[in-house]
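sry for the spam today, last one i promise. C-alpha cells for design, 492 residues
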C-alpha cells in the first residue's frame, strides 16, 4: 500500500536544532546588563549627591573663613593671609550679606564674569542631577558662585570657586563607582548564574535530555524520567512528564500487541476463509438431503457460514479488524433473539433457563448481522459466567432478554444471575484486552459490542444494582426526511 503524505512526513528524520548559545549563557548575558543598569540607576543620584556634598563642604569652609576674616581688627586682613585662606578652602572670593549690606571678606583673581550660579537653599533633586551632568560634559576652567545659609546674623554667604577641580573630583568618583559597579555586577552575575543554573538550568537540561532520549526509544520503560521531590513548577512538570511517559509506553505496548494480533488474525482468516468455503460447499450438498431435520437446520448453518466468510473477507480487505458501516433497516427483534439462542447452543441446554420478554412486534433500526454479533457476544459472556460459577439450584441459573421501545429508541437488555462484573473490570469495561475475567478469554467481546453499537449511534452500558450482570443496549431510529417519504408515496 502506498504511503500517504502524512506518513512520509513522519518518516523523515527531524533536523536537529543548531544550539549556538545555551540557556546558561543566555542567562549570564542577560544578568550582566541588568546588573549594569542597576549600577547606573545607583550612579545617577550618587554623582549628584557627590557634587552637592562638595559644594556644601566649600560653603562650610567659607563659613569658617568668614569668622576668621570678620574677627580681624577693623576688617583689615593682609592680602597674603587672605590668599592663604582662600587657597585653603579652594575659593577665589568669599562674601557675606548682613541686612542690606553685602560685604566682600576676601578675594583673589576674581574673573570678569561668573559662569554659573548655584543656590543651595532652593536646590531640588532633579536640578542637582541635571547640573551634575552639565558640569561633567563641559570643558574649560569656568567659575561657579555658590550661595548658602550663613550662621549668626548674616542672611547668606557666597563663595566663588573654580569648576575644574570639582569636575576632576567628579570624574575620579565616577571612575571609582564604575569599578565598584563592575565588580558588583560580576559578583552578582556569577551568584545569580550559579543560583539559576542550579535551580532551573540543570533540571531543564535533565528534562530536555530525557525528552530527547525518550523520543529515540519511546517504548523503553527505562527512558521514563524519575521525578524529583521538588514542590515547585519544575517538580510538577517532572511528575506530569513521568505519568505521561508511563501512559504512552503502556499504550505503545498495547498498540504493538494489537498490531501483532492483527497480523496473526489476517493470516488465520486467510486460511479460515478457505476452510469455511469448503464447509459451505458441503453444506450446499447437505441442503439437498430430504431429511426434515436437515432441512430445518441447513439454512441456519448456511447462514452462519456465510456470516463467517463475509467477516473473514472484510478483515482481509481492511488489513485490520475495522468494522464496516452498518446497513440498517427495520427488523423484528424476536426472530433475531431466537437465532442468537440457537447459535449459542442454549435452545437444548437444560442447565440454563432462557427467558425472553420481548414486546410483541418490537422492531429495531439496525444492521441484522451486527446486531446478531452484539447479542451473541453478550449471551455467550452470560452463559460462560454461569458455567464458570454454577449454582446448586439449576432453576436460579437464568439468562433473560427483554426488549421494549421508548419513543424512537429501541432498548434491549441482556441479564444473567451469575456473579456479576468484578469492580476492577468495570474501570475498563469496554476496552479490548482489559475485562476478560475467565481463563483463555481475550476481553474482546464487550469491546466489539460497544464498537458496533456506537456505529449505530446508540449506547451500551452496565446497569448498576442488579443481580448478576445486566447490559442495556439503546439504539435510536434514524431520522426520517419527510421529503423522501413524500417522493416515495408520489411514486407509489
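last one done:
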Amino acid at each position: 500500500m502506498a504511503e500517504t503524505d502524512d506518513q512520509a512526513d513522519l518518516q523523515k528524520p527531524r533536523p536537529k536544532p543548531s544550539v549556538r548559545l545555551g540557556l546558561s549563557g543566555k542567562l549570564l548575558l542577560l544578568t550582566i546588563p541588568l546588573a549594569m543598569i542597576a549600577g547606573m540607576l545607583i550612579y545617577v543620584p550618587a554623582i549628584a549627591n557627590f557634587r552637592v556634598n562638595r559644594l556644601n563642604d566649600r560653603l562650610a569652609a567659607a563659613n569658617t573663613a568668614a569668622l576668621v576674616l570678620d574677627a580681624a581688627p577693623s576688617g583689615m586682613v593682609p592680602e597674603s593671609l587672605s590668599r592663604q585662606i582662600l587657597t585653603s578652602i579652594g575659593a577665589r572670593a568669599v562674601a557675606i550679606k548682613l541686612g542690606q549690606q553685602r560685604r566682600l571678606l576676601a578675594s583673589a583673581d576674581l574673573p570678569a564674569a561668573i559662569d554659573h550660579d548655584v543656590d543651595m537653599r532652593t536646590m531640588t533633586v532633579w536640578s542637582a542631577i541635571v547640573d551634575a551632568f552639565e558640569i561633567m560634559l563641559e570643558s574649560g576652567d569656568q567659575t561657579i558662585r555658590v550661595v548658602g545659609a550663613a550662621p549668626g546674623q548674616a542672611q547668606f554667604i557666597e563663595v566663588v570657586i573654580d569648576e575644574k577641580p570639582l569636575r576632576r573630583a567628579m570624574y575620579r568618583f565616577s571612575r571609582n563607582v564604575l569599578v565598584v559597579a563592575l565588580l558588583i555586577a560580576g559578583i552578582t552575575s556569577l551568584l545569580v548564574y550559579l543560583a539559576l543554573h542550579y535551580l532551573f538550568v540543570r533540571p531543564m537540561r535533565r528534562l530536555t535530555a530525557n525528552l530527547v532520549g525518550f523520543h529515540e526509544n519511546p517504548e523503553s520503560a527505562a527512558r521514563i524520567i524519575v521525578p524529583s521531590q521538588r514542590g515547585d513548577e519544575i517538580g510538577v512538570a517532572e511528575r506530569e512528564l513521568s505519568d505521561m511517559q508511563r501512559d504512552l509506553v503502556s499504550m505503545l505496548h498495547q498498540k504493538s500487541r494489537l498490531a501483532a494480533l492483527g497480523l496473526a488474525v489476517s493470516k488465520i482468516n486467510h486460511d479460515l476463509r478457505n476452510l469455511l468455503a469448503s464447509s459451505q460447499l458441503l453444506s450446499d450438498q447437505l441442503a439437498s438431503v430430504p431429511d426434515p431435520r436437515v432441512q430445518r437446520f441447513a439454512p441456519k448453518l448456511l447462514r452462519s457460514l456465510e456470516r463467517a466468510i463475509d467477516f473473514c473477507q472484510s478483515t482481509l480487505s481492511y488489513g485490520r479488524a475495522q468494522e464496516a458501516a452498518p446497513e440498517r433497516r427495520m427488523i423484528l427483534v424476536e426472530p433475531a433473539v431466537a437465532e442468537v439462542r440457537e447459535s449459542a447452543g442454549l435452545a437444548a441446554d437444560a442447565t440454563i433457563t432462557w427467558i425472553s420478554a420481548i414486546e410483541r412486534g418490537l422492531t429495531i433500526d439496525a444492521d441484522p448481522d451486527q446486531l446478531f454479533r452484539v447479542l451473541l457476544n453478550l449471551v455467550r459472556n452470560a452463559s460462560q459466567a454461569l458455567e464458570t460459577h454454577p449454582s446448586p439450584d439449576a432453576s436460579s441459573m437464568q439468562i433473560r432478554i427483554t426488549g421494549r421501545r421508548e419513543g424512537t429508541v429501541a432498548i434491549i437488555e441482556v441479564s444473567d444471575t451469575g456473579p456479576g462484573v468484578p469492580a476492577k473490570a468495570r474501570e475498563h469495561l469496554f476496552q479490548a484486552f482489559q475485562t476478560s475475567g475467565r481463563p483463555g478469554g481475550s476481553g474482546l467481546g464487550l469491546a466489539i459490542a460497544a464498537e458496533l453499537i456506537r456505529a449505530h449511534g446508540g449506547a451500551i452500558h452496565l446497569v448498576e444494582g442488579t443481580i448478576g450482570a445486566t447490559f442495556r443496549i439503546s439504539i435510536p431510529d434514524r431520522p426520517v426526511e419527510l421529503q423522501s417519504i413524500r417522493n416515495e408515496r408520489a411514486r407509489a
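The chain has a mean pLDDT of 78. ok im logging off now
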